[in-house]
Amino acid sequence: MAEAGRKLDSAAARPGLALLPTDDSFNEADDTRRAADRAGARIEELEGLGHW
Asked: Full-prediction pTM beyond 0.70?
């Protein structure tokens, strides 16, 4: 994961999309938002959906 994180800044050169299911039992919304921000991706929340 650390290797993937180091490449997030270069991802901003391309449009991106991060999906954020609101009922995700892993509850990593803050991490998803930070990664999307660094990558220049927009976030779409998936209301009522979970991880699987």
From this structure: no
Cα 24 to its chain centre, rounded Å, is: 13
Structural domain including 26 reads 2-46
Distance in angstroms (rounded) separating the CA atoms of residues 24 and 14: 27
Q: Is residue 52 part of a domain?
A: no
Residue 32: count of CB within 10 angstroms of its CB:
19
DSSP 27: -
What's the structural domain count of the chain?
1
Taking the CA atoms of residue 28, residue 4, residue 36 and residue 26 in that order, the dihedral angle to the nearest 10 degrees is -10
Average pLDDT estimate for 5-12:
71
